[in-house]
């Protein structure tokens, strides 16, 4: 065999071997990348829980020092300033900084899975009485996007939402007017079964609605719209979300479990979206049907 033919055969074998190596590398990458992504998401879940534990320690210390009351400006804004902590604009007429919990919240306001806002829709909350009036506007978040409060200023970005009823005498219907003096505000010390009462959770809006209704879960995960529990329904942590409870524990919550938590004293925990209330598998949107039932 001539040297030229031998050289051609060697080159051909080298090319085949190279293609085999490339195929093996591609296969290994295909196996490794999901594992890396899973590890990264798990790390973000742990960081999210770490953020919530810092919230829990802060709020536990605050309620202990304030007769069980959660941080509120008591001017009708309810728990808005709890989210902002000391990051309240100096120009705000209700900005009595000494009344807040004195803890900078911006660095723990965001779940690592949702750190940047996106224009996915807006929300508006308003309140008025003979003593106060205010309006809150913002943009909703999603599984991977933070929500954003636009007014009152300064703008604030977050990806957790709090249980509104804890600032409203733990009731949702009828909505009770919030007192405007700290001395008469609601104390969580009067509540029982703290381990079942959610305080703050992964969310697409900063607070629950005043009336926790039972609309159908949205057909798509974490779009941010819709009422009731939809602000918590997302695939942010593997079809679970992280939450703080009033005993200041932090744990994952199954999406269907949300309807069984003790949101308020008058919240029906055997509502139509629970096993006790008769929910059927086909009642759930397709993306939620493999979630654990409660």
From TrEMBL:
InterPro entries listed in its UniProt record: N_methyl_site, Pilin-like
TM segment ranges: 12-36
Alphabetized UniProt keyword annotations: Membrane, Transmembrane, Transmembrane helix
Name the record gives this protein: Prepilin-type N-terminal cleavage/methylation domain-containing protein
Species: Anaerobaca lacustris
């Amino acid at each position: 065999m001539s040297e030229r033919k031998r050289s051609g055969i060697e080159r051909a074998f080298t090319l085949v071997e190279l293609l085999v190596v490339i195929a093996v590398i591609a296969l290994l990458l295909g196996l490794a990348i999901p594992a890396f992504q899973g590890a990264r998401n798990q790390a973000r879940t742990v960081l999210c829980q770490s953020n919530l534990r810092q919230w829990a320690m802060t709020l536990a210390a605050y309620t202990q020092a304030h007769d069980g009351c959660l941080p509120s400006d008591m001017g009708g804004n309810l728990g808005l300033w709890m989210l902002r902590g000391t990051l309240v604009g100096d120009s705000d007429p209700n900005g009595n900084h000494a009344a807040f919990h004195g803890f900078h919240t911006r660095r723990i306001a965001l779940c690592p899975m949702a750190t940047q806002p996106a224009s996915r829709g807006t929300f508006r909350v308003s309140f008025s009485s003979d003593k106060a009036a205010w309006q809150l506007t913002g943009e909703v978040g999603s599984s991977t996007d933070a929500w954003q409060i636009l007014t009152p200023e300064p703008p604030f970005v977050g990806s957790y939402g709090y249980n509104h009823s804890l600032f409203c005498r733990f009731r949702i219907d009828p909505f009770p007017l919030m007192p405007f003096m700290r001395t008469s505000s609601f104390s969580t010390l009067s509540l029982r079964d703290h381990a079942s009462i959610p305080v703050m959770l992964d969310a697409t809006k900063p607070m629950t609605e005043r009336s926790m209704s039972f609309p159908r879960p949205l057909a798509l995960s974490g779009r941010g719209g819709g009422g009731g529990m939809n602000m918590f329904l997302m695939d942010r942590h593997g079809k679970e979300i992280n939450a703080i409870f009033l005993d200041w524990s932090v744990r994952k919550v199954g999406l269907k479990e949300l309807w069984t938590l003790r949101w308020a004293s008058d919240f029906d925990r055997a509502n139509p979206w629970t096993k006790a209330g008769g929910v059927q598998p086909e009642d759930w949107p397709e993306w939620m049907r493999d979630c654990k039932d409660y």
